[in-house]
Amino acid sequence: MVRIGYHASHEQFTPSALLKYVALAEQAGFTDAMSSDHFMPWSERQGQSGFAWSWLGAALQATTLPMGMVCAPGQRYHPAIIAQAAATLAEMFPGRLWCAFGSGQQLNEHITGARWLPKSDRNARLLECVKIIRALWAGETVSFKSDFVSVSEAKLYTRPATPPLLLGAAITPETAEWVGSWADGIITVHKPYAEQRSFVEAFRRGGGAGKPMFLQAQTSYAADPQAALAGAYDQWRNNILKSSVLTELRLPAHFDATGDYIRPDDLHDHIRISSDVNQHITWLEQDITLGFERIYIHNVNREQERFIETFGAQVLPAVLSK
Fold first, then answer.
1. Buried/exposed code over 11-30 (b: 16+ C-beta within 10 A; e: otherwise)
2. For the chain, which domains are there?
């Protein structure tokens, strides 16, 4: 059964504001929520970056929604600490937490001072971290050492009865095919329909057939088309760059400098920009035909309450009733 969630963007809003928004989203009829996990925002205009793991505990307590996050174990986070954090949340809130792991962006990971690895090495490190986290969730005592990760006699004493769903985060078909071989499911972002179909096919080809697929759908809804476009351009234009660029820039100022070369019309293939609720319903129905079973709508402009109210009243009933 399809579920429609609210995406809590820590880069754009304070944690206290996001607590209010996620509670409003539940009241409006959203069935799920997810959160970003950044140390720095994508732009100085966004201006926030609360700690997702602290916020998730508060948000899970404040609502009854299932929730998850996308994070990158291995550099900023030691995998044993991520395993412990997730296990604690899953024990307190059984069946409500999922975790998605990716290879990360230099924007967040460079703060440790460690060398930023090439993509192939980051993938190797990610897979090692996933194996460590799964072993710890299973109650094993873990010792491990490689060129990327070291663990010495780690054991989790507080574990949930059922471990969280472990997803892989991917943007390209190449990564999606690889994720299909080891993850319980996958999460990705909005792309043009033909590109998304190729992504889904690659995931299924790599071993993901029958596994759940989650989508973070970047959206900009406002009362009129000009406001929707202006809000998207102000807040999210830096994020339409290719994955190979998004992962390599170090600071919000670098993203802002690159974003200066992006035009408003460049956004439409990357963000669902419209003031027409029927258009948003059509987009969500296309996601469902591709096989996405949980869709987390990220309204990238700053008008969260209007978005939550309108989608709760007009969009969610139309999509969830089918």
1. bbbebeebbebbbbbbebeb
2. 3-320 (3.20.20.30)
Determine the Cα–Cα distance for residues 80 and 150; give it in Å rounded to an integer: 10
Distance CA 227, CA 242 (A): 25
| DSSP secondary structure letters along 211-255 | S-EEEEEEEE--SSHHHHHHHHHHHHGGGGS-HHHHTT--SHHHH
What dihedral do alpha carbons 284, 308, 322, 204 form, nearest 10°? 40
- CA 19 – CA 13 distance, rounded (Å): 10
pLDDT in tens, 205-256: 999 999 999 999 999 999 999 999 999 999 999 999 989 999 999 999 999 9
Tell me the CA end-to-end span of the chain in Å, nearest whole number. Answer: 10
Residue 86: both structure tokens together: 């997730």
- Biggest CA pair distance of the chain: 58
Residues 6+ apart with CB under 8 A from 97: 56, 60, 66, 67, 68, 86, 89, 90, 164
CA neighbor of 202 nearest in space, from 226, 171, 224, 228: 171
Rounded distance, CA 290 to CA 295, Å?
A: 12
Instruction: Give the whole-angstrom CA distance, residue 59 versus residue 97.
Output: 11
Residue 104 near residue 157 (C-beta atoms within 8 A): no
**Residue pointed to by tokens 């690159």:** 258
In sequence order, the 6+-apart residues with CB closer than 8 A to the CB of 191 are 199, 269, 270
pTM: 0.97
Contacts of 240 (CB under 8 A, 6+ apart): 262, 266, 267, 269, 270, 271
Query: Dihedral (C-alpha) 102, 192, 243, 164: value to the nearest 10 degrees?
Result: -10
Supply the pLDDT for residue 87: 98
Say if CB 82 and CB 73 are below 8 A apart: yes
